[in-house]
Design brief:
Layout lengths: L4 E5 L1 H14 L4 E5 L1 H5 L3 H4 L8 E4 L2 H9 L6 E3 L8 H8 L2 E4 L2 H9 L6 E6 L14 H9 L4 E7 L12 H11 L6 E4 L1 H9 L1 H7 L5 E4 L24 E13 L4 E2 L5 E2 L4 E6 L16 E4 L2 E6 L7 E4 L11 E7 L5 E2 L1 H7 L4 H6 L7 E2 L9
Parallel strand pairs: 1-19, 2-3, 2-9, 3-4, 4-5, 5-6, 6-7, 7-8, 8-9
Antiparallel strand pairs: 1-10, 10-13, 10-17, 11-12, 13-16, 14-15, 14-17, 15-16, 17-18
Helix pairs in contact: 4-5, 9-10
Length: 377
Amino acid sequence: MPRPIQALIHPDALHHNLQVLRRHAPDARLWAVVKANAYGHGIEHVFSALAGADGIALLDLEEARRVRALGWRGPVLLLEGVFEQRDLEACSRLDLWHSVHCEAQIDMLAAHKTHVPQRVFLKINSGMNRLGFAPHQARAAWTRLNALPQVGEISLMTHFSDADGPLGIAAQAQAFQTATSDLPGERCVSNSAAVLRRALHARQSQHELPASDWVRTGIALYGGAPDFGQPDAVDADLQATMSLRAQVIATQQLQTGDTVGYGSCFTAPQPMRIGIVACGYADGYPRSCGTGTPVLVDGRHSRTIGRVSMDMLAVDLTELPNSGQGAEVTLWGYASSGALLPIDAVARAGGTIGYELMCALAARVPVVADAALPQAR
């Protein structure tokens, strides 16, 4: 039989999350972000659930070809734009919109031979300090783009660094508004964190957020919280779109003083019973998730014990006398009983974020691509 581990993708949850985000941004069109292979879910596995989006945003041409091959005829946006001159030929052929964040990309457009003007999104660096033109450069960049026959409509975009944290968005929003106040074009400013911030702090956020014709929803679509988890996914009525489940493949009875795993970093303080689970860091489960990381065993709460190894980890069965070899272990997402272990709770225990867990799912883990959401019982 196959090794007892699998990832389950829940399209119904993704569809639900899309509707929730639409309610939170009723006046904007919605980009469904599918970069990093749809946050580790697989673009092909989530495509049908994204039919209600207004556009698909992604990172590179290979992903763009995949969504076009699947039949998507709506807008497709390259979030980092093009990387070399010939990429613009693919943009023309596949009808792609693309970000422009530096002078080199404008140079490429100026040299591009095309009869069909391209839709571009001029990116303003309002404080993230990754990509984009500084606010004082925005007008010159827009003017240069506007003069090119290769460019059609110009939209304006920025990215908030702290929409989910205590610093908030006010300073960046003001920088963006000041830089673009008299420039025409649609605005694309809100990421998942900003959309959820507006939803939970509507009275405050309506004065912070500039008008947004488009919102870019990534992690929230997949049922995860933004970096700082404010709000968390459950509070925001988001459902988990990926569940990672394995099984107990052996049990061990520990005596007081026995140690577990590499480095003997866990010592039993009393007699204990543990289960060995067919999941390790080679499956994408973080090695940093040491003793105390939450898991569900047969739908009941337990914890990991000791150090995660390449192919296995240990869980505490001391208080679960009816769970033994063959018991279902939910590493994140939904147990078959319907009990939920939020991926963000696992990520916090491992000192990371839910995005990383989703994206790190290993190719060796079998995927059930159209798994129904279990009903709580």
